[in-house]
Specification:
It is built from 13 helices and 7 strands. By secondary structure, it is an alpha/beta fold. The chain has 2 domains: 141 residues, NAD(P)-binding Rossmann-like Domain (Rossmann fold, 3-Layer(aba) Sandwich), CATH 3.40.50; 138 residues, Orthogonal Bundle (N-(1-d-carboxylethyl)-l-norvaline Dehydrogenase, domain 2), CATH 1.10.1040.10. The protein has a 7-stranded mixed sheet, sandwiched between helices. The longest helix is centred in the middle third of the chain and has 23 residues. The N and C termini lie far apart (50 Å).
């Protein structure tokens, strides 16, 4: 099949490489889209950052299978990526791809696993057949909302983890941060109707471990530079920067306790310095886990 890919960044290129391995033909499109050429394709991968999805979707007409790969919540509206898709393409059979997958390692053909989630298993199975390879294993999920929330919020916790590391935090401290960060993700997700079990899988704890412990992660690296008080010169979009403000707003709507996310937001908006944020987190009143 001919698979269209909108987005020519590292992730779009990595997915194109996997598609080529499984015998399909990837066709790249920029944000200025040739609609006639696009109509000849059999399926579409949306591989632009979360904040750019709306810009792309309002330009196209599409009713064939669509794969959403961005991990973020729209900052201006608080919408999840599937909501943005349905706003512009209400009849499209969409699927979410998420999980612990660094683009450069996918390109190097190193083994990895990801999750596909949709409202209809047929949609997920369609993409599973396209991506299944000895170097790229896919699992199916019945909780597309939870998969999206896990993929988006782990970027916020990754920034926090980077800040802690930059401040000279210990391995003990990072383990505690990731554990309590996961608890925040679960609280947020279940409050919005996701299944708790989803966050114990690849798109939850799996993606969190990867993104919040490696300098290959843009969000972790951003936090690291903040903690070290260094200029961030890394390239690429840091989805967590945009997601955290949307998360804070959505958490207030349902009165969800999010102390780590709140600290990240305050640091990014320069309302508090990292040292003070860490002190505040460590000196909160005792509570049950």
């Amino acid at each position: 099949m001919n698979i269209a890919i909108i987005g020519q960044g590292a992730w779009g290129s990595a997915l194109a490489d996997v598609i080529s391995r499984t015998g399909h033909t990837p066709s790249f499109f920029g944000r200025e889209i040739d609609l006639e050429k696009l109509s000849l394709c059999d399926a579409l991968i949306l591989a632009v950052p979360a904040q750019a999805s709306r810009e792309v979707l309002k330009k196209i007409t599409w009713e064939k299978p669509l794969l959403i790969t961005a991990k973020g919540i729209e900052q201006t509206t608080g919408l999840f990526q599937s909501d943005v898709v349905e706003e512009f393409l209400p009849n499209v059979p969409w699927t979410i791809l998420s999980g612990p997958t660094f683009a450069e390692e996918v390109m190097e053909k190193l083994p990895c696993a990801a999750v596909l989630a949709s409202k209809n298993d047929k949609n997920s199975l369609f993409w599973s057949h396209i991506f299944s390879h000895t170097t790229f294993r896919t699992y199916l999920q019945h909780d597309p909302l939870g998969v999206q929330i896990g993929g988006a919020l782990k970027n916020v916790i990754a920034i926090a983890s980077g800040i802690l590391t930059g401040l000279g935090g210990s391995e003990n401290a990072r383990a505690a941060l990731l554990t309590r960060g996961l608890a925040e993700i679960v609280r947020f997700g279940t409050a919005y109707g996701a299944k708790e079990k989803t966050f114990m899988g690849l798109s939850g704890v799996g993606d969190l471990i990867l993104t919040a412990t490696s300098e290959k992660s843009r969000n972790f690296s951003l936090g690291l530079h903040i903690g070290e008080k260094q200029m961030d010169t890394s390239k690429g979009v840091k989805e967590g920067v945009f997601t955290v403000s949307a998360v804070i707003k959505k958490a207030k709507e349902k009165d969800i306790f999010m102390p780590i996310s709140q600290a990240v937001h305050q640091i990014l908006t320069e309302k508090i310095n990292p040292e003070k944020a860490l002190q505040d987190l460590m000196t909160r009143p005792p509570k049950f886990e």
